Amino acid sequence: MQSLRDGNYYACKQMKQHFESIEQVNNLREIQALRRLNPHPNIVTLHEVVFDRKSGSLALMCELMDMNIYELIRGRRHPLSEKKIMHYMYQLCKSLDHMHRNGIFHRDVKPENILVKQDVLKLGDFGSCRSVYSKQPYTEYISTRWYRAPECLLTDGFYTYKMDLWSAGCVFYEIASLQPLFPGVNELDQISKIHDVIGTPCQKTLTKFKQSRAMSFDFPFKKGSGIPLLTTNLSPQCLSLLHAMVAYDPDDRIAAHQALQHPYFQVQRAAETQTVANRRAFFPKYPTVPELPRHNWPFSKECRKQV
């Protein structure tokens, strides 16, 4: 959509819900989250909130990106280069780290909600986000099934921000292989697909999940084929990070700030450090201007009154 005010084009998200007041609009989680998280190079920018008091309609005007990750990889015959995959995943982990540090988790990380423009990646659509400090249990049927973490499938809403890392791991695999990692057709099949690849969880993890579920469940032991058998074009460091992101137990799953320090991103960290160094070199620190000597200038009574 083109703005009549500045002539620029923006992405317009028209909300289905209607609102009664501006206070109700300002309490919307998505708006609160974007205002808290902006500006950040890897979070989509919210430019304007358009609320019509008469009709109660609401639209969010956000920056316009070229496409989402799903559109980027759909129909491709050959995977992206590992350099490009690494670049995108580093930015995704940076967006998650910024979000989690600010007390928010997304709950719907998937290719359609990850936007790209040239080489820049940004996380968007915060309609399902929650505060990490809000009380459990949360909504059970959250996030798209293929990217839903085991704790979201096996507990009655007892999950944490670590679910975002699982979803990001699934996206990671999909970008690298052009195939979904766990394409379940329903919830039961989703769990089965996860067990086919990474195996059934240990008894300790299973017991933990059972404590947060009203209905009892059990699974026959399955070792799992492992991720390397699904694709052969992933480097050892790539597989190492991917395994850490899709750890079955959320307590064992890597956090975003830890993922950013993984050896897989060594080149990205070095490039980032060099960029910062170049900026400092371009803008040198100028010597401090010496302080001028103080003089006790005589003021008239009129001047003193004005001062």
Automatic annotation (TrEMBL):
<dbReference type="InterPro" id="IPR050117">
    <property type="entry name" value="MAPK"/>
</dbReference>
<dbReference type="GO" id="GO:0004693">
    <property type="term" value="F:cyclin-dependent protein serine/threonine kinase activity"/>
</dbReference>
<comment type="function">
    <text>Able to phosphorylate several exogenous substrates and to undergo autophosphorylation. Negatively regulates cilium length in a cAMP and mTORC1 signaling-dependent manner.</text>
</comment>
<keyword id="KW-0460">Magnesium</keyword>
<dbReference type="InterPro" id="IPR011009">
    <property type="entry name" value="Kinase-like_dom_sf"/>
</dbReference>
<keyword id="KW-0963">Cytoplasm</keyword>
<keyword id="KW-0418">Kinase</keyword>
<keyword id="KW-0547">Nucleotide-binding</keyword>
<dbReference type="Pfam" id="PF00069">
    <property type="entry name" value="Pkinase"/>
</dbReference>
<keyword id="KW-0479">Metal-binding</keyword>
<dbReference type="GO" id="GO:0005524">
    <property type="term" value="F:ATP binding"/>
</dbReference>
<comment type="similarity">
    <text>Belongs to the protein kinase superfamily. CMGC Ser/Thr protein kinase family. CDC2/CDKX subfamily.</text>
</comment>
<dbReference type="GO" id="GO:0005929">
    <property type="term" value="C:cilium"/>
</dbReference>
<protein>
    <recommendedName>
        <fullName>MAPK/MAK/MRK overlapping kinase</fullName>
        <ecNumber>2.7.11.22</ecNumber>
    </recommendedName>
</protein>
<keyword id="KW-0966">Cell projection</keyword>
<keyword id="KW-0067">ATP-binding</keyword>
<dbReference type="GO" id="GO:0046872">
    <property type="term" value="F:metal ion binding"/>
</dbReference>
<dbReference type="GO" id="GO:0005737">
    <property type="term" value="C:cytoplasm"/>
</dbReference>
<feature type="domain" description="Protein kinase">
    <location>
        <begin position="1"/>
        <end position="265"/>
    </location>
</feature>
<dbReference type="InterPro" id="IPR008271">
    <property type="entry name" value="Ser/Thr_kinase_AS"/>
</dbReference>
<keyword id="KW-0723">Serine/threonine-protein kinase</keyword>
<keyword id="KW-0597">Phosphoprotein</keyword>
<dbReference type="InterPro" id="IPR000719">
    <property type="entry name" value="Prot_kinase_dom"/>
</dbReference>
<keyword id="KW-0539">Nucleus</keyword>
<dbReference type="GO" id="GO:0005634">
    <property type="term" value="C:nucleus"/>
</dbReference>
<keyword id="KW-0808">Transferase</keyword>
